[in-house]
Amino acid sequence: MAATWTDVRDWILARNPDVTELDAETDIIDTRVITSLQFVELVLHVEELRGRMLESSEVDLDAFRTLGSIERTFLRQ
Questions:
Q1: Which conformational region is residue 51 in: left (phi greater than 0), alpha (psi within -120 to 50 degrees), or beta?
Q2: Residue whose C-alpha is closest to residue 32's, from 52, 16, 49
Q3: Which InterPro entries match (predicted)?
């Protein structure tokens, strides 16, 4: 079964107990749902979910802004 944005959401919520709601279009960068260190971990988690490494050119901040954009950019392949 292919990974979806909910898999990424569950990963974020497990690391941020103060965050109670997170939908597909919440800007996780601007709202500071994830820290800069967690961003690096998030990239690694997305690589794990998709089963291959990201190219450095793919790691664009805008592609990681929302859970929906993560799914559209990296998980639907």
A1: left
A2: 16
A3: ACP-like_sf
How is domain 5-75 classified at the CATH fold level?
Answer: 1.10.1200
Q: Which amino acid is at 5?
A: W
* Radius of gyration in angstroms for the set of CA atoms belonging to the chain, rounded to a whole number: 11
pTM across the whole model: 0.90
Q: How far is CA 3 from the centre of its chain?
A: 11
**What 3-state DSSP class applies to 59?**
coil
- Structure confidence by residue, pLDDT tens digits, 18-34: 998 899 999 999 999 99
Amino acid identity, position 58: E
Residue 75, token pair as written in the block = 């998980």
Alpha helices in the chain (DSSP H): 5-15, 36-50, 67-70
